[in-house]
Write a structure and sequence with these properties.
Helix content: 10-25%
Number of helices: 3
Radius of gyration: 16 Å
Distance between the termini: 9 Å
Bound molecules: 1-O-pyrophosphono-5-O-phosphono-alpha-D-ribofuranose
Largest sheet: 6 strands, mixed
Strand content: 25-35%
Order of helices and strands: EHEHEEEHEEEE
Shape: globular
Structural class: alpha/beta
């Protein structure tokens, strides 16, 4: 079965919105150091573009998690595939995600990270699918776009590991459906 990718958000639209969100972040943190944690792999491109626009001191760390039994929907139980390299105690953590769907990943992950004594944890996502949310208590501090429940790729997001490098956000349409 083949698929095609249809444009949803152009590179210019995405970048313009990232600049706006970075300005909000700059205002809120007011020069305080930000410890950005990228949730691999989808968040990589967004985190780089966001970080370029942050004015104060920024540090990076990376975490890779997967849900057990992940097929199309996360199960709510996360397995740490790669933990953080550094301690987050006393730091302002900004969790950077490509997309929030059910919210289960971030719900579990932020619960875990709170036990490590950060000064603060905020969540920043490029895309948000509010119609899919199961975990209502996940508070999204910064979001670039709310999108409908479509299968999106590009700007870090994949379909079977393909299309992560697209500089725009597209919707996958499956042929013969
Ligand atoms: C995606 C996304 C989030 C999670 C969101 O990651 O990056 O981590 O799913 O889903 P949820 O809100 O329903 O928990 P994915 O497991 O596809 O991994 P990837 O970023 O490595 O492609």
């Amino acid at each position: 079965m083949g698929e095609t990718v249809k444009m949803l958000l152009t590179e210019e639209e995405v970048n313009r919105r990232i600049t706006e969100v970075a300005e909000e972040i700059n205002k809120d943190y007011n020069g305080e150091p930000i410890h950005m944690i990228c949730i691999l792999k989808g968040g990589v491109m967004f985190m780089c573009e966001l970080a370029k626009r942050i004015k104060g001191p920024v540090s990076f760390d990376f975490m890779d998690v997967s849900s057990y039994g992940h097929n199309t929907e996360s199960s709510g139980v996360i397995k740490i595939l790669k933990d953080l390299d550094e301690d987050i105690e006393g730091r302002n953590v900004l969790l950077v995600e490509d997309i929030i769907d059910t919210g289960k990943t971030l719900n579990k992950l932020s619960q875990l990270l709170y036990t490590r004594g950060p000064k603060s944890i905020k969540i920043c996502t490029m895309l948000d699918k509010p119609s899919r949310r199961v975990e209502k208590e996940v508070f999204v501090d910064y979001r670039c776009f709310q999108i409908p429940n479509k299968f999106v790729v590009g700007y870090g997001l994949d379909y079977n590991q393909k299309y992560r490098n697209l500089p725009y956000i597209g919707v996958v349409e499956f042929e013969n459906e």
